[in-house]
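Here is an idea for our session: we take a single protein and study its fold together. To get us started, please write out a protein record for me. Start from the sequence, derive the backbone structure tokens from it, and show both lines together. Go ahead whenever you are ready, and we will take it from there:
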Amino acid sequence: MVVSGDQHLTTKEAHKSPVGYMLQKTALVTTALTVAGASWYYAVGMTSGSDLTAIYNCSAFFAYAFSIPLLGDKFRIDKALAVAVAIAGVMTIAYGDSKSTGEGASSEKANNRVVGNVVIGIGSVLYGLYEVLYKKMACPPDGVSPGKGAIFANTFGSLIGCFTLLVLWIPLPILHFTGAEVFEWPPGKAKWMLFISTFSNACELDKTITAKSEPLSVAAIAGGILIMGAFFFFSWSTYREMEEERKKVLESEPIFSDEDEDE
């Protein structure tokens, strides 16, 4: 059903093994998710928690941008404007402070912050792509019973975990022995912070507990306002779209009069 996008399968489709499709799409979706998640942990030591959270949460806008060509969603000017405003907010946060750098340590710190914002921006785009890929490749078609949908979601989620455990560990020893990224057991305090971060991530809590605590700059405040405005505009557009669809459904439904009921 997922491959064809239809609940009613032909005889040929019913006898075709889904193993190859599941393995291929699991690798693609998991890789996109892993790279997007790794960007957060790479950027967390380079930028501030406010920048990190604001930029990473813009993945919803990028998901809409990807859903138009990949899922065939309807293009709406108001939503496109919301995406543009969100991107403007991200660019303001990422590059707004780059010109106000001093010399020495302050300049290096500002440059690291810009690089961290760019990295988390790429991660936000990839996470939006992951959400759309999951919808396109790992969700049953509309109309499937909730029970079948839950079973498939658990199966695909388990495959993501298995692929991570069996495949994605391979680059770690290569990075370690080549010296590109040395892995070592964290010290006591860092160990607890990583535990709290992992636990909060599993519970869908805020991960910024491990991020740097820095005062908000003018660019960060301005970019945050733009992103909040984009969220409001996007939500309002979604509400309008739902209302339009509801009216269409009501208009398409037949109207029965009392005379029809008597007949």
